[in-house]
Design a protein that fits this description.
About 35% of the residues lie in helices and about 10% in strands. The termini are far apart. The C terminus is likely disordered. The chain is built from 7 helices and 6 strands, in the order αβββααααββαβα. Helix 2 crosses helix 6 and helix 5 packs across helix 6. With about 230 residues, the protein is mostly helical.
């Protein structure tokens, strides 16, 4: 008996099931996600997520090129699966909606350094630049770091007259200053753009939160919230 057609049909069925499971299934579940009006604390009508500014988009390419995702994740685990929220890395778990505008999402799988999903809420640009140039300068006994220096993204210039307003706040006893290059600024802008602070229907506020209204709530509830919300 010729078993060729049966073998072909079995292989075809296996490939078809794999395609349906790993490609078509996720596409049907999350492939058509769109920005949505989220659940807010103290305000109404904010669309989430936002697109990245141009500088941050360029910084994402630098982040990718330098392999930052090898040591940092960008995904906050649910409280039931880890201590991310307790550590202050996020106010809620990450969801698929957080990555709508990202191509080649850099979730990461190893945490040599802290998660960066909400880095823009925890750090300022000056701190990010200091970490890039000299990670040990911002480390302490509680936050030891093995992060390498990215000093090639900075210029060491002799001070002639006044210091550059962009210079890092290092002592200038040797007459030189450290000034970030364009790529350092872009990378810092990308890190500062990272935030997953919008409460969503699939990741709602914690129980007991006040002044939180779902934007699909009845009109009366929405109007009441707008009336009682603090003035901006």
């Amino acid at each position: 008996m010729n078993s060729g057609p049966l073998l072909f049909f079995g292989l075809f069925l296996t490939m078809a099931c794999s395609w349906l499971s790993f490609i078509m299934g996720p596409q049907l579940q999350i492939g058509d996600l769109r920005p949505t009006t989220n659940i807010l604390v103290g305000a109404l009508g904010q669309v989430y997520p936002h697109t990245e500014p141009g500088t941050a988009h360029q910084g994402a390419e630098i982040y990718r090129a330098n392999g930052c995702a090898a040591c940092h994740t960008q995904q906050v685990r649910p409280a039931s699966l880890g201590s991310d929220i307790r550590r202050g890395w996020g106010s809620r778990r990450s969801t698929a909606s957080d990555y709508i505008y990202e191509n080649d999402v850099m979730l990461g799988s190893l945490r040599v350094g802290p998660d960066l999903a909400n880095a823009g809420k925890r750090m300022d640009a000056a701190t990010v630049l200091m970490r890039l140039y000299d990670p040990a300068s911002v480390a302490n006994s509680e936050h030891f770091t093995v992060m390498p220096s990215y000093s090639y993204m900075f210029d060491r210039r002799k001070i002639e007259g006044a210091r550059s307003p962009d210079a890092l706040p290092f002592p200038t006893t040797d007459g030189y200053e450290i000034v970030p290059k364009t790529e350092a600024r872009q990378l810092a802008a990308y890190v500062m753009s990272l935030h997953q602070d919008g409460y969503l229907y699939e990741a709602p506020p914690p129980p007991g939160a006040t002044n939180v209204i779902a934007t699909n709530a009845p009109a009366g509830a929405t109007n009441a919230a707008m009336t009682n919300s603090p003035a901006k």
